[in-house]
């Protein structure tokens, strides 16, 4: 049986690593943090475009085979899973290509209150005060205001993902898209994961939500951001006070378009 591919995308700091850690408990599944396939996909698209003088010899069918081959080659015999979830924030901006390459594939976009995403990143930066982060190109300067601005602009870590999410949400492949709220995942994990299984048409599996395991300490350390992919053993919704100045927090508090039914004309499933 051909291996099934699905995709985890959406906003950063919104539960994608936690979702992957949970799904990986199922022996039929493989899921992890963001990997290299998204970047390789974009690079290959560029190299096969008109900017390469030899692109005249490449047909669209060859492009499809080469791009699909990235997944088949990367997830080779080293991975025994029948179902693979590849994670990358760029997938929301590639819904059309993914639909052609993987007609049965689904995209699960993790979302969260944008103010709390900015807050979560700022908290990480403050926790690792002596380690400049790759999130800000290892630059040690800046303020909470410049960091929030950099994250939110169109090329920033949050802004790019937010725009890609809206492109998918209002695009033509919404039958392949589900939005999973971070707030639901941490407060009602049983309901959240049950919805994922229904969406991808897989038989339910008895997950252990009090014994979650995931580790990427070496990656996080090299990125200058220890704790970036930390997943707690037990899923618990935690309340705390934001570290952001009030004006920065308020700037993003109305950006959750997915909560307004009037802004969901295609009826995207939001859990």
From TrEMBL:
Pfam family, one: Sulfotransfer_3
EC number(s) reported in the record: 2.8.2.-
Residues spanning the signal sequence: none
InterPro entries for this protein: P-loop_NTPase
Keyword flag Amino-acid biosynthesis: no
Keywords on record: Transferase
Species in which this protein is naturally found: Rhodanobacter lycopersici
GO molecular function: transferase activity
Keyword Transferase recorded: yes
Record-given protein name: Sulfotransferase
SUPFAM superfamilies in the cross-refs: P-loop containing nucleoside triphosphate hydrolases
